[in-house]
Design brief:
The complex is a heterodimer of chains A (280) and B (297). Chain A is α/β, with parallel strands linked by helices. In chain A, 30% of the residues lie in helices and 21% in strands. Classes of the chains: A alpha/beta (280), B mainly alpha (297).
Amino acid sequence: MTQPQFGQIDIDGLHIQLGEANRRFEALQDVSIHMAPGELVCVLGPSGCGKSTLLGALAGHLTPSSGSVRVDGVAVAGPHPDRGLVFQHHTLFPWQRVLDNVAFGLKMKGIARRERHRQAHEMLQLVGLQDFAHSYPAHLSGGMQQRVEIARVLINHPRVMLMDEPFGALDAQTRLKMQELLLAVWARINTTILFITHDIDEALFLADRILVMSPRPGRIIEEIRIDFARPRGPELVTSPRFTELKRHCLALLHPATRVVPLQRLTPLGAPSLTDIHFAI
Amino acid sequence: MSFSSSFPAGGGEQPSASSPLSRPASLQRRWPWSLALAIPPQQWWHYGLRVASVVGCVLLWQWASSTHLNLGLITFQNVPAPKEVAQAGWALLQSPKLVSHLSASLYRVFSGFIVAALAGIVLGMLIGRLSWLADVLLPPLELLRPIPAVAWIPLAILMFPSSEISMIYITFIGALFPILLNTIHGVEGVDARLIASARSLGSGRRAIFTEVILPAAAPSIVTGLSIGMGTAWFCLVTAEMIAGQFGIGYYTWASYTIQNYADIIVGMLFIGIMGMGSSALIKKLGNLLMPWYLLQR
């Protein structure tokens, strides 16, 4: 595997406040993360801890209150195809067939139809959906829709891929398959991936490194290096080392003191802000 | 916004109107010359019932008019029987007057409707996305909206050089608001995540409008166009009765003044058929442009 050149993430002293006037709260508090190009890092934390907010800041949909977010040394200022974003529920355009959904990024670059379809076919092959190029998203299962979503992001050859609990809405079987697929795809394209999840098994299975976040205000409370050999297979999850790490994560996520469950946040801010008008 | 609740979002069509469209495409294409074959046997009952309902209404009408039914509050003494109406309708079908009446009405309806569609969709998309424009344009529009198109007739006659243009203006006013409001409603309902995704995939301002907001709001816009087509006919007929010299509304009113009572009902039926056909045309066009939309329901 060649070492990629691009996709270095540097987040320093990041604070983000969300909400209106007197209901303003600190979603992220003094978060610093450094990722090497090609690294796969999972951010693990309870619901509403601000892990999606972190992703939103990297994607360029949320503005930091203070601190800096840089990719390859350049400060993040608004969304860019170099930073692909995958949501928990797919955001495929229901009016476009799978092929055109995947080719959308290339259309935005002004690439001719024939060429963008050729590349989209390639991408669909990568995620194993070449036979569904002419289906509408509504015809696909949840797992297939997420695969198309991933292909749509990858066609732009992003420096980093930001994934917000992308398999969280899938059933357990499909989720396992998708995790293996993601690792297989990542082994080939080797982009930097920041993967948000609240599923400990998922984080342990995927990551080079896990960052554990505390409930609101979100802070990084622990960093765990995961040194399982790659390629990883399903037998990994029953190994003693895996169980040991899982126990450790459980203790971090469920401290003895009872915590009040928090409202879910999204990469676009608090849920009450979903009707915000973007500055377009 | 407060008014959005009064208009059905995308899927508010009548089941009777949408069910033929849910048939497989291969069967649809054979319509209408082998309609009976196109209907699956399990639906014969429904179609039979619908036909029986229309036949029943005509029989009731025949009975009421032939017996000169008088209920005190309402009387059928001067109402022509179905047979007379059919004869009058046949006579009109063969007379050259029909084409000039219908073409006059169609020309007015479609002129007013097309201008209203363009204005309503463009304004609606801008108002839905730009809050400052909503602040500027919505208050006067909200003030004008409750004024029925009929109330515009005197002023329209004063404002426009010919009665032809003033009638087109009335249909325009009638069609504008349903189209405008449904467009705004559709634009406001666009999933913010779709827009965020499009921006992350490299869409600029203009591409967001053409590639995301317009198609996402399209089902709602088509609903608006369909309702707008109905109100356009409604307003046109009223305008023609007052200001027209040709047109199907004028024909209906003129038939009353010269006491051709059967022709009144012929005119009414033509208005119904033309309005129904125009709305069906809009729906058909909508389904052709949005094949993906039927899949979602």
